[in-house]
Amino acid sequence: MSIGQKIKNAREDMDMSQNEVAALIPMNQSNYSKIERDLQEPSIAQLRRICQILHLDPNFLLNLGNYEQISSKDLNLLKDFKELLNKYTH
């Protein structure tokens, strides 16, 4: 999975729009959209901010960890946990 797709999935999991994330970086929505579509690479500062906003581990985003061994069952469990956590913390 590409960096842009990972960012898009995380944003959608958090129920945020591209405009909301772009405003928090800050950058314009058009350029942020290009990052999600892998048409533009984010700067280091933008990448750091995206990870902070979307609660992404940079190792996962950049394929530096060993995330390929996580099963789909574990991923579903993590997604369910994230939804439960969001429900009680927002």
Protein traits:
mainly alpha, 90 residues
Distance between the termini: 29 Å
Category from helices, strands and their pairing: mainly alpha
In helices, the fraction of residues equals 55-70%
Percent range for β-strand residues:
under 5%
* Assembly status: single chain
Computed Rg: 13 Å
For the largest beta-sheet, the strand count, sense and barrel status come to: none
Number of strands: 0
**Helix and strand run:** HHHHHH
Number of helices: 6
Your description of this structure?
By secondary structure, the chain is mainly alpha-helical. Helix 2 crosses helix 3 (29-36). The protein is 66% helix and 0% strand. The protein has helices at residues 3-13, 18-24, 29-36, 44-54, 58-61, 72-89. 13% of the residues are buried. The N and C termini lie far apart (29 Å). The longest helix is centred in the C-terminal third of the chain and has 18 residues, at 72-89.
SSE blueprint and pairings:
Layout: H1 3-13, H2 18-24, H3 29-36, H4 44-54, H5 58-61, H6 72-89
In short:
This protein is mainly α and 90 residues long.
